[in-house]
Amino acid sequence: MTKTEGRTASAAVKDILLSNPDGLREVIRTVMQEVLEAEMDEALGAAKGERTPERLGYRSGHYGRTLITRVGKLELRVPQDRSGHFSTELFERYQRSERALVATLAEMYVQGVSTRKVKAITEELCGHAFSASSISAINKRLDESLKAFAERSLQEPFAYLILDARYEKVREAGVVMSQAVLIAVGIDWDGRRQILSVEMAGRESRSAWKDFLVRLKGRGLKGVELVVSDDHAGLVAAIGEVIPEAVWQRCYVHFLRNALDHLPRKHGDDCLQELRWLYDRRDLDEAKADLAAWLGKWSVRYPRLTSWVEETIEQTLTFFRLPRQHHKHLKSTNMLERLNEEIRRRTYVVRIFPNTESCLRLVRALAVETHENWMEANRYINMDDLREHKKLALRQAA
Fold it and tell me: Where in the chain are the domains?
């Protein structure tokens, strides 16, 4: 597309949005219609009316399809081919996260939240009020796909495993309580991130994490060399029991937050900032040299902090065993924290879930959405770096 064409297209879209209050819906409808036609062209190997020996079939009109979105109801014309083989994933993929939210709101209605409030929310988010039968059908289809995702076999090995938990408010037996959402992300040998598991637990206990990890291994989790997590005692114990072959990296971000507990209320920022700089060093020797200097500088002023750091910081330096290119990705759980932020943004709409099942449904649907985006993106890290790092370590050991 030339610059002139780009400006013309932008101007056309701007005119639509300014002249028509429903302009955004019309723009999205037009784009999605074009996607459907392009999918048909690709499936048939030829555009409409094009004569080519590579053609694989012929068009056979259209049928109507309504798509409910956050900008309202879209009326689309889905192309058909004569053999009836053409199908599109556009609707399923576009609506998956929408269904999760609508299904959760539906369960709020079932559990006694006012009809008016639920209807108002669904109409505001989706531009459409769903019937009870429609919601039931959505729930059923969604639950089936989420169960398949949650129980899928893990065929390939995962060198890196990142674990974390967040909490959601859930009503059980009439009482609102916090329940833990346990999440595991793996990085395979292609360097791609995958969400391996999302489960609910009453609390973040050793037994809950152990059961979580045992189920992961039962699905085929293998080859884990490094686990990254915070220092929750139950989680650390479960890692050592279920994945003893892996080394553990304590998230340095959580570590720095915990350091605040060992400082007086009024303190300068320089102390923790200098401690944070240790994690940017090239190798372990540099980090330990800086640590010694840091301890010498601050031990008189903050003896409680420096004593605690000296005893526990080794747990946060495991990542120096990895190739330097992997340090920024594996020294913390920040990658999983970003996923948690997205979950928090979406679950905020509900505030209090009517039951555990509705919470798990929404969070898993969001996890599937993120997982698919990760799998379609470029690799997260280059695992050739780790392969070369291990070869070098073997040569040095010999």
Answer: 23-88, 156-385
